[in-house]
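Support case: manganese (II) ion complex. Customer-provided input:
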Amino acid sequence: MQNTVISPDLIEQDNAARLDALEEDYAALSRALERRGIAIGQVKERAKDWSVAVPSWGAGRGGTRFAKFPLAGEPTNIHEKLEDCAVIHQLGRTTPGVSPHFPWDRVEDYSALREEAESYGLHFDAVNSNTFQDQQDQPQSYATGSLSSTLEPTRRQAIEHNVECIEIGRHLGSDRLTVWVGDGTNFPGQQDMGRSFDRYLDAAAEVYAALPADWTMMLEHKMFEPAFYSSVISDWGSSLMAAQELGEQCKCLVDLGHHAPNVNIEQIVARLHRAGKLGGFHFNDSKYGDDDLDSGSINPHQLFLVFNELAEAETAPRGGFDPAYMIDQSHNVTDPIESMLSSAETIAGCHARAWLVDREALHAAQESNDVMLAFRTLRQAYETDVGPILAMARMEQGGAIDWLGTYRASQHRERKAQERRAVGLGAGIV
Ligand code: PSV
Ligand code: MN
Ligand code: MN
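Agent response - structure generated as follows:
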């Protein structure tokens, strides 16, 4: 029996009140797409098959390095986080995977945790290691870096933590490890840029050696923060070099917030795919840096263009195409459940719209250098409102047509505010 957090009767009642309007919108869109030679049912089935994982850490209120403003009823441990992730998936039906972070999600019994997730119809996605923070009772500090530290005992500790994450992931049923390190410098001359990369590679090779044969190790680059002069894995070039050197099972993960402003991220996606090294994504949006804002809230067009490259890549796979899709956001001013439902819908919408692109027409326009026609071919797909397709797909799978209305009617957060331990004030994680 599946454990449902929101009453299925409530979802059904809410859907019943909205079904007539949805059917009208869906029929109108179906006719419009038919004129373009697109069968709406196929797009809907593709939408049903697609999913994006939510981050366990995103279930709680985020913060900045200045403050965190807790939300009454927010989760404070992995069990409560799973419960909220279950709500997100129950209403939205696109987020069955949860990406955990260690040691934040540490428990005694990982097999029991896996069963707990499964009772909600969830599974564990990529495991994230954390060597960017010191933990209580940890023998070595990461103040000098982690995998690239000049200090051998510190590198050893970082290696062992990553190997432990793989072990935990095996119990959880995961098959991917995401490695992001904050290693870098704040001053010119502080460390040798070549030698720190070498130390990183040597240490990362030991983690790689511990990977089970069917696992993928994903390297996540980030231009700056916490290091403000140089970062060891600062960009996709460094990430690609490292992934190529480490081996077949090592790929690159693209977090949309980890680039220089105005960088053409969709082109990076195409390049990494070309190299057979596109491992996965952390979706979020940004205006200035690694803002971790809700996906598509600032630049939805960029998100669509990323998915256009992914659709292109999927139709021309090079050595296997199986990127891991994850959300990585910090919800500072919203209810994280609402933000992740909204983000998952936005991301799924960009995915669906990328598959509305008339690819034959696009390729023909590109070949004949018909610039305007090529641009309009993409634009036509981007401007199509796929809301009715996503809502119909959700409803047919037991989710909510109007996830926001149903979620608020459920009073989940209000109930949790009575039951859960209150969160103290303090700075959040960045
Ligand atoms: C770093 O900014 C990052 O994007 C990495 O993915 C971390 O694991 C995550 O944020 C968590 O804060
Ligand atoms: Mn990230
Ligand atoms: Mn980040």
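The first helix runs from residue 8 to 35.

Case will auto-close in a few days if no follow-up is received.
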